[in-house]
Design a protein that fits this description.
Length: 164
């Protein structure tokens, strides 16, 4: 790929990462996501970008909602599981404590905060697809200082579990 200079810019960013989970057709899936953020205030909207190569992308394609989880730095093993393993080969939910949301979407017990969002649109972004979410359920409020949350730099060592 030609060097556009964008990597030099994005390497300076240290965005918070999240774990996204989905369920559809009797399957559960989840992955570590580095591209996500609030995209509207009124109405409140959030977008997560999932790689087309990812098992979670395939399950999310049939899902009605996704759960987005924020994890503390102490939750690095959870991020390594959901970022470094692929649901094509491993049942990540057999290795992590979780419970179903009201609509059945998996909620990870090790998350600092989470919300479930109804998928209102899917946006082609190239090798990733954006899932536009309308929040419908969320974790109880609690302190979550940004300095304590996992960031891109914390997980740079995690090799993606999905095939390249």
């Amino acid at each position: 790929m030609p060097d556009t200079g964008l990597d030099r810019f994005t390497d300076l960013l240290d965005n918070t990462v999240c774990i996204v989970t989905a369920q559809a057709g009797g399957q559960r899936a989840g992955c570590l996501v580095g591209f996500a953020g609030q995209c509207s205030i009124r109405p409140p909207r959030f977008v997560v970008w999932l790689s087309r190569l990812n098992h979670t992308f395939r399950v999310a394609g049939a899902a009605e909602s996704l759960a987005v989880h924020l994890v503390d730095r102490g939750g690095l093993p959870l991020a390594e599981l959901f970022g470094g393993e692929t649901g094509d080969r491993v049942d990540k939910f057999a290795r992590a404590a979780w419970r179903p949301a009201a609509d059945g979407t998996p909620l990870l017990d090790g998350a600092r905060a989470w919300f479930v969002g109804r998928i209102t649109a899917r946006v082609d972004g190239g090798d990733h697809v954006g899932f536009l979410l309308d929040p419908v359920e969320q974790s109880p409020p609690g302190p979550a200082p940004p300095a304590d949350l996992l960031s891109l730099h914390d997980v740079r060592h995690v090799r993606a579990g999905h095939p390249a």
